[in-house]
Amino acid sequence: MLDDAQQQLLLRLSPEPFGGNRADWGMALAQTYALRGDTVKARAYADSARVAYEAQVRDVPENGTPHALLGVMLGYLGRQADAIREGKRGVYLATKNTRVVPYVLHQLARIYILAGEYDKGIDQLEFLLKVPYQLSPGWLRIDPTFAPLRGNPHFERLVSGS
Description:
Strand content: under 5%
Order of helices and strands: HHHHHHHHH
CATH architecture: Alpha Horseshoe
Shape: globular
Number of strands: 0
Oligomer: single chain
Number of domains: 1
Structural class: mainly alpha
Helix content: 55-70%
Number of helices: 9
Radius of gyration: 15 Å
Largest sheet: none
CATH topology: Serine Threonine Protein Phosphatase 5, Tetratricopeptide repeat
């Protein structure tokens, strides 16, 4: 949702403004480069984030969030089967902490979209629109993450609020 000037600023940042968290830094840059169409840099930063998320998964293997975020990074790296497996593992583990379930399902939706499994991604989004969570039809309309879904009749029904 950042304009070009904000994206340029973000892309110049080091991990320090992210609290030194290389996973969050790598993810932010990977996503931004991907939205800008620079797949080479998106993959490089996704790989940096992948390494950091794998360490988090090793440190706290029963926490679903790092699994889901690792899945997103694997999706950017084109490793769809691994990405989906990690996303599903994250959802399974998150069910033990219902507070994070919607966030982890959101990540699974992103993974499905990155994997080209749009209908499965839309199914996750449809569920998320029915529970208390930050997503809304308006958000789905403007968030570039969901651009690959535009034109899909099921997605268009969701964003119209039908």
